[in-house]
Amino acid sequence: FKGIMKLDLYKKIIDEASSKGVFSIKLSWRGEPLLNPNLIEMINYAKSKKIKNVAFLTNAELLTDKLTEKLLETELDWISISADGVDEVYNKIRFPAKFEETLFKVERLKKRRESLGKSKPLIRVQSIASAIKKNPEKFHSSWKNRVDKINIIADQIRDFDVDHDKLEFDKYFICPKPFQRLAIGHTGKVHQCIADYEGKNILGD
User: Measured between alpha carbons, how far is 182 from 180 in angstroms, rounded to an integer?
Assistant: First the structure.
């Protein structure tokens, strides 16, 4: 557990982002935004400051009926459900979450959104490729009627305590991420990019 951004710091960042014409923000970065007691207020504040696109990623474990209703009262633009694999693969990777329970929670969100006649938030599900490689059809069939989009991403190295002799680096590669988005941690520190989880290169505050 790293921490939760203080609301006054968040509002200061949003005020500055709005004044600079920032189009989009994502209220998650290697954490679970549904743990933040201020999440609904954060969404509403960003939209009130004319941030056009407000979104977040979640594992949906805390997506209760009450929270579903509160989210649908906001102008949240999209929500991405991190759901790696199906059945026991999912249960192992996403423990203590259960695959069937997550399906139910996301389906409830979509049905309630539709009953309100709303088109937002767009609901996306996302898995890493290795988690579904043995049964991609089951993953697709499980989610196709419960979400608006299905997304599969490449696996990433997130633990750098590995044998570096086995890694191949292209010395001419320039990562585009720092030029595409700003990664701000819960303390307000600006990390080099979204892969700089440990804050190895802090660019600002």
Answer: 7
pLDDT tens digits, 33-46: 999 999 999 999 99
| Contacts (Cβ under 8 Å, ≥6 apart) of 185 | 2, 29, 191, 199
Listed residue (72, 145, 133) closest to 103, CA to CA: 145
Q: How many CB atoms lie within 10 A of CB 33?
A: 21
* Residue 32 near residue 62 (C-beta atoms within 8 A): yes
Query: How far is the CA of 112 from the CAs of 68, 96, 116, 186, in angstroms?
Result: 8, 25, 6, 31
Whose tokens are 């320039």? That residue is 174
Yes or no: say if 124 and 148 are a contact pair by the CB < 8 Å rule: yes
Matching residue, tokens 């988005």: 181
